[in-house]
Amino acid sequence: MSTKEHYRKADLREAGLRTPYIPPEIWSSILRYATWVPGIFDPELMVLDGATMSYRETSSAFRESLITKRYIVRVSRSWYGLASRFLYEYILLGRGTVLAPLCDGITKRASGEKETYYPVGWWTKRLDVVMRDDIKDLEGLMDTLAEIISRLPNLRVLLFGITGRGYHYPQSELIGHYSPWSVFIGHLHLPGNVLRAANSCRDTLTYVNWSNTICTPHISDWTSFLENHPRLESINVPCAIQEDSRVSFDCLKTIYAYSLFGPPSSTCEIWNIDMPKVRHAVYDLTTHRLGIMLDEVNILFFRKIGPQLTSIQLNFLEKFNTERDMNDLFKTTMQQLTYCCKNLERLDLTIYGWIIPKFELFPNVNVFGIRVTSSFISTKIIQKLFRVMFKAFVTRHRSVEKIQFLEGGNVHALRKHPQTLREVVAFMATLGVTIEDHNGQHLVVE
After folding, report:
1. CA-to-CA distance for 374 and 56, rounded, in angstroms?
2. Residue 17: CB partners within 8 Å, gap ≥ 6?
3. Mean pLDDT of all residues in 257-263
4. Can you say how many angstroms the Cα of residue 371 is from the centroid of all Cα atoms in its chain?
5. What residues form DSSP beta bridges with 256?
């Protein structure tokens, strides 16, 4: 020990300065606060993919949080033990090359306090399977993926959004592989062992989502999965189920539906199964993620599920040249919604641009939410939106008391025009309508 270090320590002792003991529970709370990203377990953001600014901001914040977590776990063994639960709570598989090392890593036990003596996979709550690279050994990759999922006993959210090459059938092999969606697009089915591996988390898994149609499950595998997971609260999978199945949706609360597609005769639509707790639905009008337009209304969904809904979100993410083109496509869907969904109290609309389609609602709808994927708005558009579109809308629907902007990016764009925003919000107040931001607070100029 150097003389400087010796006397420095002596000075600290004489001054009574000692590093205070902080209980692990407090350290855990500090690390939780330092690495938490709001929205990473929000199903509504998940289904919108990269279409909104909120999703992009959450994804960016998550990447920054990962960097913070990596620095924290390298401080010491005890910090690794405390922070590993946060480091692995959300796993994003962006490349197939990371699967093998991850599979080995999640079985390792964290060192530190006794309560952290679990494999790190114990702490994982969300898994995103979104490989975007080119792969050669698809079978081996999927076997590794199945092994990873089998080691996540507390998984709550499972998402698939694969975009990489190698997950498609060669054109010559398409014959004989039938699925309502995948045969049309030419995508491979998800191997059955991947979904079977999720039996390890059947008591915790509540949300399953496919953000596109690549590697959707085979109908028989999907049916078996649903039979083994009766506690699911939300599903978003473009796949029918087999007839005479034992599928139960007694715990389901939110359902995602799409424009109609024709299933083979050996299957049935999930809408034929009772969903007693479902009160909220998300409906894609044009199924933009396919890259094609399937604009036939899913009448069975509206007639079976519509009467019990109290809120619905309509995703209408297509770019149209004119307002008339949009209204024509929107009209047939709204006819079914008006005819079937007589208990709606809230309607949320996600659209591409600042044009609101014309439609009619029932007298009991009192909240209208809007989310626009565009982050730009001019003063002229604001004036038209509030003084023309919103005015006409609330004039036709006197029951509407609130209009809420659901997207934080939209609120930020509006606040760039403080004088205009102040005027139009006051104008809407004269019509008896409150304007709210994405947090449910009165929209005010900051």
Report:
1. 13
2. none
3. 61
4. 15
5. 282
DSSP 302-364: HHHHGGG-SEEEEEE----SSHHHHHHHHHHHHHHHHHH-TT--EEEEEESSS-PPP----TT
Q: How far apart are CA 284 and CA 196, in angstroms?
A: 28
Question: If DSSP codes are grouped into helix, strand and coil, which group holds residue 31?
Answer: helix
Residue 87 has pLDDT above 90, yes or no: no
Two structure tokens written together for 249: 């949706």
**Does residue 388 contact residue 355 with C-beta atoms inside 8 Å?**
no
Listed range (138-142, 157-161, 329-333) with the worst mean pLDDT: 329-333
pLDDT at position 182 is 42
Confidence of residue 353 (pLDDT cuts 50, 70, 90): confident
| Residues in a beta bridge with 235 | 208, 255
Q: Which amino acid is at 166?
A: G
Nearest to 96 by CA among 145, 146, 59: 145
Q: Strand, coil or helix: what is 150?
A: helix
pLDDT of residue 178: 39
Q: Per-residue DSSP letters for 177-229?
A: ---TTHHHHTBPPBPHHHHHHGGGGTTT--EEEESSSTTPBPHHHHHHHHHH-
Exposed / middle / buried, residue 230 (Cβ in 10 Å: 0-12, 13-18, 19+): middle
Between the CA of residue 264 and those of 108, 183, 219, 239, 312, what are the distances in Å? Answer: 45, 12, 10, 11, 28
CB atoms within 10 A of CB 325: 12
CA distance 196 to 142: 12
- Alpha carbon 166 to its chain centroid, in Å, reads 25
